[in-house]
Amino acid sequence: MTTSDSPLPSWRAGTTREAVVAFLKSAEDLPPRERVACFDNDGTLWVERPNYVQLDFFLDALRRRVGTEPDLGSRPEYAALLSGDTAALGELGLPRIALALTELFEGVHPDVFTGHVRDFMATATHAALDRPLRTLIYAPMLELIEELRSRDFSVTIVTGGGTEFVRAISDELYGVPPEAVVGTLIEYDFHAGEDGPHLSRSKRLLGQANEGASKVVNIQTQLGRRPILAAGNSDGDSEMLEWAGNGAGPSLSLLVDHDDGDREFSYSGHSVTLTDTEPILTTAGRLGWTVVSMARDWARVFPDVQN
Amino acid sequence: MTTSDSPLPSWRAGTTREAVVAFLKSAEDLPPRERVACFDNDGTLWVERPNYVQLDFFLDALRRRVGTEPDLGSRPEYAALLSGDTAALGELGLPRIALALTELFEGVHPDVFTGHVRDFMATATHAALDRPLRTLIYAPMLELIEELRSRDFSVTIVTGGGTEFVRAISDELYGVPPEAVVGTLIEYDFHAGEDGPHLSRSKRLLGQANEGASKVVNIQTQLGRRPILAAGNSDGDSEMLEWAGNGAGPSLSLLVDHDDGDREFSYSGHSVTLTDTEPILTTAGRLGWTVVSMARDWARVFPDVQN
What we know:
The structure is a homodimer of 307-residue chains.
Chain A (H helix, E strand, L loop, with lengths): L14 H12 L9 E4 L13 H16 L7 H8 L2 H7 L1 H9 L7 H14 L1 E2 L4 E2 L6 H12 L3 E9 H12 L6 E13 L2 E11 L6 H11 L5 E4 L5 H8 L6 E6 L22 H8 L2 E4 H4 L10
Parallel strand pairs in A: 1-4, 1-7, 4-5, 7-8, 8-9
Antiparallel strand pairs in A: 2-3, 5-6
């Protein structure tokens, strides 16, 4: 078998790759409707350090806005963000910061928001890695997605990030359609105008942030199917990985361990919002999940950059 | 061209069929991601008279429950339902009745609920039409769904009915997967048990009933795409049909008019929950929607029954 015929060429031979291949084989006997895979996005499909890509997008939008409305820059949340004052950011807290950023797009039509995200992603670069942000997706995970899709899996993204932010790029980057993206939602306002109905973004969160137990609940309410493969990298993915691994049939709970400071970043999977929980590597050991060591298991991290 | 080669064989020749065929043709130039169709379910894809199928399901569940727990039968909502006391039902109001029925499945795992729905649908019959309930789907709409799917449309169901109720049968009846069903949701409770996480149905509605403006909002939040075809039959579909018809490109807003008392039921499309709005046939005329006369436009109403 040549390399190009072999599935998962960016995965090095070893127990991790063997576990993935064994799962793919075992799923062949299942009816297609049971073949559901849920992937976390930040840190699982693409880079999340030093900033979440979505935060970079919002920071860019904030700088543009403050350029035309300088008074906005004195608002405490925005001032802390613009100066990178981590002490002030910590004191204000992530929920308040996130809501302040959400307000930047209050009143905006969903298609216009999508356009802003795509414009940003078309040109933004990652300073430390010196690559376009849109290329900072993990080649081994793309191969796994392709392999799953060729085996009639429904491939979905279940992210703590904004649903509409991820939808704006999920089709182009991962081939995942908008309805297969489950994330954190903001509410829309409905307007019955003279020229027909239209929608605008509010500054209100719809339900809770899509982390932890909410990922399991939202998979059920929005997708209506239980995954048999779940992949994540942080505490906020723990319940989803356990949910996927807890069915009667074959399953795969994949935990990406960021242990490759040379090619990417080296850090543990503690999410910023859930700090009281068991470290997820401990959970992985206890429940027998498959841990993906980026340093050991991935022959390459990023796809070739074509520009 | 023979009948079997012709698309939409159950649609009689005429302006309605011509409008549908012209729309299909005009959509061929669109990128597949823009080919999204949203169908209402009750009264648009299957029979809703004299009762919503979902109400028949809940009534059946209520009778079984009262058989083993007779005291339940004295609860006002249940007593009115069991005796068919329309005055009492009207006084109690639909929201209170619906919530009382939702309580019948409080604490139940989603897969168990799905099993109950499928068991019911496997054997239940429609007394007036003397057919199994599962065969009371409209053959012309099934043909339209097939035709859309063959043209790379994403075919979705946007229903005022319970999301999980419709999901239980949407794949078998319409080939629509669970994630493509947008309906009225109940909240789930998440439990972190010794044996891993599990979910149970609560008795709380998640957001509002999926009718009227909520259909437009929920299409955006759950599907993330705007339909270019919407089909409905009642006031609760009005905003969705206007939304679909309001884009820049080709679109089709289809309104099913139940004017065929011989083969089905003859009634106007006033929903029970929205009575203050313009009659939907008036809206259809004002906005140039395509009205489907069941009596005139459909050569047959139901598919052949095979049992």
